[in-house]
Every structure is written in C-alpha cells, then in structure tokens.
Amino acid sequence: MKEVKIVSKRFDIEGINHIKKAIEHGAYSTIHKMFDKDPKTIVDEIDKSGLRGKGGGGAPTGAKWKLMLQDFKLPKVLVINCDENEPGTFKDRQIISKDPHLLIEGIILTSYAIGANDVYIYIRGEYHQWQNILQKACDEAYLQGYLGKNILGSKYRVDITICKGAGAYICGEKSALLESLEGKRGHPRLKPHQKEPEWYFGRPTLVNNVETIATVPFIVENGADAYKEYGTSKSPGSMLFAMSGHINNPGVYEAEFGTSMMEYIEYYGGGIKGGNLKGVIPGGASTPILNATEVAKAKLDYESIKELGSSLGTGGMIVMNDSVNMVEALKNLLEFYHHESCGQCTPCREGTAWVDEIVESMLRYSASYNSIEQLLQIGQTMNGKTICVFAPAVSGVIDGFVKKFRSEFEEYLRGVCNE
Ligand SMILES: Cc1cc2nc3c(=O)[nH]c(=O)nc-3n(C[C@H](O)[C@H](O)[C@H](O)COP(=O)(O)O)c2cc1C
Ligand code: SF4
After folding, report:
1. Distance (Å, rounded) from C-alpha 301 to C-alpha 315?
2. CA-to-CA distance for 206 and 62, rounded, in angstroms?
3. DSSP string for residues in 97-146
4. How do beta strands 316-321 and 277-281 pair?
5. What is the predicted pLDDT for the residue at 418?
6. Hey, what CATH topology would domain 326-413 get?
7. pLDDT of residue 219 exceeding 60
8. Which DSSP state fits 283?
C-alpha cells in the first residue's frame, strides 16, 4: 500500500509542538515567501489543486475562496471549524496534537489569500487538552512574529482567537457555528439561493475545516500538480482517515483518495478484531452504513462511496464485527440525534424523538407489527424538508440499518405484535 504524508508529514517527530523544532523541520517556510506572491495566485493554485473540504461535505475549496475575493468594502473573516463532534471522527484533534504549527501556517496563508486579518478557531468545548496545545502554539507564533501586527516585518496583520463551543453537535454546521460565535443559540441559518460567503456579524466570512486548512501549506509549497499526483481525478489528494470500533489497531492514518477500504483496514488497522466483518459506517456516524459485501467493493473517495449509496463524510470509519446487534447500534445513534436536534424544524424535532422511541420499543419487545414501516416513513418525512441536512442524514442512517439488516429488526417483532 502506498503511504502518503501530506498533512501527517511531521506527526512522528518528537517535540514538534514547539515552534523551534517545527521551524527546524520546515514549518512556516511558505510564510517567508508569501509576500512575493499575489494573494489571488494562491487562491488560483488552491482552486487548480481540486482540494475538497475535509469537514464532511467535500465542497471544492477553491470555489469557496473565490467568493471571498469580491470587493466587499467590509473586513473579511476566516473561521476554522474544529467542532469535531461527529461520532467516529477524531482527525482534527490529531493535527492539533501532532503538528499545531502546520494549522497555523495554513491559517496565515489562507488569511493572506482571501484578505482576512481576523481568524476565529471554533473548537469543541470538551477538547480542553487540544485547546491548551493550540493556545500555546499560537502564543509561540506571536512571539516569533508569524502572528499579530506586521508579520515578518510586513504591513500584514493576522490575529487568531480561540473560541470554545459549549458541546452542541449542531454547532459544527457552519451557520450554526457562526450563530454560536455571535453569542446566540446555535441554530442553523436558512441557506441563500445563490452561492455567497458566510456572514459573521454581517462580515463576509470563510469557514473551513482544520484539515482543509492544514493541507494548504503543501499545495502552496509544492504546487497544485504535486497534490493532484495523489488520489483520483475527482477526489484529488489525500485525507486523514480515522478508524474505530472492532479493529486491532484503531487510529488516524493518512491515505490517498481511491485507496481500497478493505486494504486500508488490513494495512493500518491490522484487520477486524474479535470476529468477521459485519459493516462499516464510512464517514462519521451520520453516513449510511455499508454491509460487508459493499465494504469489499468500497474505495476511499467521494464518488465510490456515493455509488454505494453512502457518503465519505469526514472519513471516520466505525468498524463493526458480527457480534454487533444492529438494532442496538441504531438505537445508540438515534439517541444521539434525538438529543442533538436543535429543534427548529418540526420533522427533525419530532421525528428524531419518534424514531428513537420506536427502536426503544423494539428492544423492549413492545413495538407494533408495522414499526419497521413506521421507522422508514418517518425517515422519509425528515428528508428534504428541513433547514439543514441533519434530519436528512438521520433519515439515511435509518434507511441503511433497516434495509441492510432488516431481518434483525424483524426478529424483535416476531410473535410480539401488540396491535
Ligand atoms: C450537522 C452538521 C455537523 C457538522 N459538523 C462539522 C464539524 O464538526 N466540523 C467541520 O469541519 N464541519 C462540520 N460540518 C460541515 C460544516 O457545515 C462545513 O461544511 C465545513 O466546516 C466547511 O469546511 P470545509 O469546506 O473545509 O469542509 C457539519 C455539518 C453538519 C450539517
Ligand atoms: S434539521 Fe434539525 S438540526 Fe437542522 S435546523 Fe432543523 S431542527 Fe435543527
């Protein structure tokens, strides 16, 4: 298997969190050459690289950055999404703990490219350890002149403020995140009809995931073509894939897009633990589960996983062996969504409660004979009728479990119908 080290290139170096060590190993080298470049050339290079957002949606990064180049006559803002609340996803914290200066370097390049001076890193409230690492790294970067006024003697200023979330999953959704940053309840906003930037206190704002920004220094240093040497034509480059669950060697490992899922699991994960493979949730808990037959065909890129009816999402794989009770596994997820629905949309607020209750009643052998159909129908009602994609994602999760492991759901109903 071809090993790739674009974002993880310094992960194994002892003491790399300290700026001196990081600089010795090449950190901030792009910043010294940054002012020789026109900001627009950096945006064009990112666009040409085909870099796609690593926060779950896989949106083309260059297109988002280009929206920021308009003459807004208002200060622009960069927001880094480090909410990382999605179950099964733990790659952003890996970047922060193993190479925080790579993220800061990416932030400086991105700010310069889009013309922003103020950066907010929105970090998950529970990530105390990583908040401290990041703050220390930022303090060091200020002392070394990479952050603050007059970066490296230039007229350019970048200031980073670290803001802690309060533990709501929905605050990872970019518009809810901005509401939360503005001090309001974390409710997703209605989406505009046309492409436009996000807005933070009325200022044009770019929101990108930690890993997306940590990939920027490689592209600026080596060029778009170097990035495109990895991956597939539609999913160029690499990603930090995370593996948890029934795996011998769980963790986060970088791989190029297009890598076979099974090969990845065998090579980095050391194979399935304690039984045979039953299924894999491929991209964080909100993506539909793949059964073992599908996993055998799956490749780690956006298009291949979509063809299998799921989504690459954040690349956080939850691996399950044949000891897993799929009704219990779905209940576990539905409890989470029930708790985390922000409550703005009726189909989501009520729907997440109903589906949770139905699966709970199945597990107690007290569900009605048609509860499988009810589950699927409520899922349909949650799809395409809400402000954000939280509810449609829950609908996809239900569909995946019920349609692929239907017999397990039927077992709970057999002989115990009470209608
Ligand atoms: C319910 C929900 C939760 C999300 N959580 C996160 C998150 O924790 N981190 C993240 O980077 N993106 C998350 N996203 C995606 C963001 O809305 C947004 O697309 C992303 O931060 C953009 O950055 P990118 O283009 O670099 O991926 C979430 C989206 C939804 C709908
Ligand atoms: S779909 Fe759910 S989480 Fe998203 S805005 Fe509506 S109620 Fe909130």
Report:
1. 9
2. 11
3. HH-HHHHHHHHHHHHHHHTEEEEEEEE-TT-HHHHHHHHHHHHHHHHTTS
4. antiparallel
5. 45
6. de novo design (two linked rop proteins) (1.20.1440)
7. yes
8. S
State which amino acid sits at residue 357.
E
User: pLDDT tens for residues 294-338?
Assistant: 999 999 999 999 999 999 999 999 999 999 999 999 999 999 999
Give me the CATH topology for the region 241-321.
Ubiquitin-like (UB roll) (3.10.20)
Distance CA 239, CA 224 (A): 16
Give the list of residues 6+ apart from residue 202 with CB closer than 8 angstroms, or none. 74
Please give the class, per CATH, of domain 19-228. Answer: alpha beta
* Segment 43-69, tens digit of pLDDT: 999 999 999 999 999 999 999 999 999
- Among residues 352, 348, 284, 355, the alpha carbon closest in space to that of 317 is found at 284
Angle (CA) 373-339-345 rounded to 5° is: 70
Give CA separation, 211 vs 100, 180, 268, in Å.
11, 21, 20
Which residue's C-alpha comes closest to atom 12 of ligand 1?
55
Closest atom of ligand 2 to 344 CA is: 7
**Residues forming a β-bridge with 317:** 243
Confidence of residue 419 (pLDDT cuts 50, 70, 90): very low
Helix axis angle for 128-143 and 100-114, nearest 10°, is 60
Domain map of the chain by residue range?
A: 19-228, 241-321, 326-413
Sheet bearing 159-164, strands edge to edge: 159-164, 116-123, 76-82, 203-209, 198-200
What would the mean pLDDT of 186-214 be, rounded to a whole number?
97
Ligand 1 mean position to 53 CA, how many Å? 9
List CB contacts of 368: < 8 A, sequence separation 6 or more.
Answer: 361, 374, 417, 418, 419
Q: Ligand 1 pocket, 88 CB below 6 A?
A: no
Ligand 1 atom 23: residue of nearest CA: 208
Ligand 1 atom at shortest distance from the alpha carbon of 176: 17
Task: List, in order, residues 6 or more apart from 31 with CB less than 8 Å away.
Answer: 105, 108, 109, 146, 151, 152
Closest ligand 1 atom to 64 CA: 25
Taking each continuous run of H as one helix and of E as one strand, the counts in the chain are 18, 10
**CA 140/CA 382 separation, integer angstroms:** 47
Q: Is the CB of 388 under 6 A from ligand 1?
A: yes
